[in-house]
Amino acid sequence: MPTDTKRVRGPEVSQSPSLFLCKNAVKKSTASNDARVDGRQRGQVDVRSVFVRCGLISQAKGSAYIEAGNTKLICCVYGPRETERKDETDMKSGRLITDMRFAPFSCRERGSWIQGSDEKDLSLMLLESLRPGVCLQKYPRSQIEVNVMVLENDGAVLAHAVTCASMALADAGIEMYDLVLGCSIRQEGATYLIDPTFLEENGYNLASGSRENLGSLTVAFLPSLNQISGLQSDGEMGEDTLTGDVRTCIEGCFKLYPVIQQALSKAVRRKAPPSES
Amino acid sequence: MATVQVSEAEKVYILHGVRDDLRVDGRGCEDYRHMEIETDMVSNTDGSAKVTLGHTDVLVGVKAEMGKPRPMVPDEGYLEFFVDCSANATPEFEGRGGDELGMELSNTLYKVFNNRYSVDLKSLCISRGEHCWVLYVDVLLLQCDGNLFDAISVAIKAALFNTKIPKVHISEDEEGGKEIELSDDPYDCMRLNVENVPCIVTLCKVGHRHVVDATLQEKACSVASLIISVTHKGTVTCVRKVGGGSLDPESIFEMTEVKSGACALFHTICPHPGKLISIECSVVSNFNLIRTSKLVTQLHLLCRGNSLSV
């Protein structure tokens, strides 16, 4: 276990008080409803409305902020910069480096500042999702750094990180084939919950009958090219449920597309010099 | 992943071959290489298995230790995975080189087993909230010739099948403290039910078609692969797209259909005590490349590892 010598650590045995919460009380109150806690419906493509803004970090080449429900993420892009390692592949195309981190106060339980294996895994998936969308062959011998910071985790973090990162790349002026949008879904028994919140993702609102088909799926999609650049699923699902969920996620991405395009065009107009007339 | 350099002419050759359902070594797009499984080879572990798939060699050791259960689930044990890419496999793995790949493999394994049905975690509980069995599954890559995920998943299934967890008795003494006793008889142990342990099938997109069990040369020609982990019932526990390319949604739907054929094959190989006899026939009919005698010796080895528990 890597130790962080720069911080004074609290006692090893400190635990979050949420562990001692009476879980049964929480479960009973929400299991009977058919609608979800925030008013959206089960079984319908009802993504949370997003607030997106570009160009908020002055030091970065491009940056974006996204808010979906209570999930808040910020992303900044630096580059193209000269690459440190001189491999043969870098002579022909650029390199994309992604880093995704959670702020310690972002989840219910306090996380640590050191990157755990979950964060490394998410960074890798973010990289795989963004790579097909960026024209890396136009930036030989350079590297583009994408840093995503999760400020508050209320579910569907990877999906929104993909969207936020592709907006930041567009804001930075990096050439791309298409925007990459992410969408997350949670399958519970016969119904699905699109864009789940943290509680829904971790199965706290489990309806009593669903012992089968319990899993989550995240899809990263390029809408104009109709290509899936990232796919990741967890839990257990039947084959038909899986294909159905992938289609639903694609629908969710299409719903998000006009909003993101509008936010980007606003940002570009703000950056452009005022016309003399 | 260990990579080979492939020239443009070779790429074109492989692509055209795959288009006509003929790969470089004569297999079809949905055929596996010759696979050998051996269990119970490392005597210091509680369960072990070695899988050879073509030139890929994977050795898995399972050790059961007693630990404290996780606070959120006090009546379950858990599994810990660790994949070590040994420098024997390729010189790229020397020093810290193999760490990235090892981490990717371990994280995928955590996702594959992250559901309630693969392994019955409640059977690993000794006393609620205080003691449970922790199974440390350590994977060692000895040789790397493509298709690591598949070989690792089969090896883990075989090793878990081979795992013997000693039976414990908890006795209370006068002051209310608990004493844990291990039985003296080395054959008095508990076996895990590995019926629902999933196997991973990797499908590589080469040109417009997908191939199963890709070698390193074929991997160098593909931009993206899909990793699907399935149980014998056909439930999918994990899907992941790896690689820097993108996939058409239609090809993903096609790939999920292919995997069911391949997974049926895997689940017959990993035997159950009662089903050993029938496996011989079904595997021979599916695999054209295996010589029957070699397979029978392998099955005898598995039999031997098995009979100790009776």
Describe the fold and architecture:
The complex is a heterodimer of chains A (about 280) and B (about 300). By secondary structure, chain A is an alpha+beta fold. Chain A is built from five helices and nine strands; from the N terminus they run H-E-E-E-E-H-E-H-E-E-H-E-E-H. In chain A, the strands form two sheets. Chain A has a five-stranded mixed sheet with strand order 1-2-3-5-4. In chain A, a hairpin with a 2-residue loop joins strand 2 and strand 3. About 5% of the residues of chain A have low confidence. Chain B has about 300 residues and is α+β, with helices and mostly antiparallel strands. Helix content of chain B is about 30%, strand content about 30%. Chain B is built from seven helices and 14 strands. Chain B is elongated and about 80 Å long. Chains A and B meet through helix 2, strand 8, strand 9 and helix 5 of A and helix 2, strand 14 and helix 5 of B.
Write a brief structural summary.
The complex is a heterodimer of chains A (277) and B (310). With 277 residues, chain A is of the alpha+beta class.
SSE layout and pairing:
The complex is a heterodimer of chains A (277) and B (310).
Chain A lengths: L22 H9 L18 E5 L7 E7 L2 E12 L12 E8 L14 H14 L11 E11 L4 H15 L9 E8 L2 E4 L3 H4 L12 E9 L4 E10 L2 H33 L6
Parallel strand pairs in A: 4-5
Antiparallel strand pairs in A: 1-2, 2-3, 3-5, 6-7, 6-8, 8-9
Helix pairs in contact in A: 2-3, 3-5
Chain B lengths: L7 H12 L15 E5 L7 E7 L2 E12 L10 E8 L13 H14 L12 E3 L3 E13 L4 H15 L1 E3 L1 E5 L5 E5 L6 E3 L7 E8 L2 E4 L3 H6 L2 E7 L5 E7 L6 H21 L6 H11 L5 H16 L3
Parallel strand pairs in B: 4-6
Antiparallel strand pairs in B: 1-2, 2-3, 3-6, 5-6, 7-10, 8-9, 11-12, 11-13, 13-14
Subunit structure (chain A): Component of the RNA exosome complex.
GO molecular function, one term (chain A): RNA binding
Main location (chain A): cytoplasm
